[in-house]
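note to self: dont lose this again. the chain is below, predicted strucutre after it. 296 aa total, dont forget to put it in the shared folder this time
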Amino acid sequence: MGHQHHHDRGTKNLRLAFFLNFIFTIVEIVGGLYTNSIAILSDAVHDLGDSLALGTAWYLQRKSTQKPDANYSFGYRRFSLLGALINCVVLLVGSIYIISEAWERLLSPEHADPEGMFLFAIFGILVNGYAAWKLSTGESMNEKVMSWHLIEDVLGWAAILIVSVILYFKDIPILDPILSLMITSYILWNVFKRLRETIHLFLQGQPDNVDRSVLINQLSAVKGVDSLHNIRIWSLDGEHHVFSAHAVISSANTVEEIKRIKKELKEVLNTYPFEHYTIETELKDEPCRITKIETE
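---
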């Protein structure tokens, strides 16, 4: 009952943050055009990416309780990687467009409306700050991760606020495109980092938070285990991982002894973030077809 309550609250928090962010993104685009501020348009692109991320997180939060079925035997967690890839592509395209516009503004500076920028900055800090606060009180990883995205937005709006105050007292048109390039460069740095991680997981690369050599040593140290082979470690979504391996046992003379070895192997694996794991036990003189295929 308690778990379901937290799940429902988490879904509501993400839904609220999504609608707040998406509506504000539309307002930002209009405001950026109205104030002639490329910096506000840059932040609108950032917020559009966050809206997509929030929408994906909201959808996945609802999907996360679905059990594996005939179509998706590992469940629905891997859909988050597809969402991350879509977010990255949207942000890359939007950022490239903003950079080209900001570069044109650097060559031919245009005046922005500092009073309009100031009002939108205050509004942006309040909206994103409230959404970040709501998500920071949640317990799910989706909520915690997305709260940091929104805190980044608050910092971006704080920068726009400072620039608007400077422009109000001194007309320096070049400040707006410079701020735009700074915001967009920061976005691109994070996008490329996230894109690299997403592609790594898509290709079933080894997750970073599992030390393969340490894990193998721990499993090999179980009394009765002679060796390990056909070791597979990959991730469903970057947080929930999968493990499979063949364990060769040489000193098991009874069924009870085999059960003891399997129990100790599972106790080691339970200390890692594996959502699924499979261990096949083999006798020392038992041939392994998979090993034979891989060595051919």
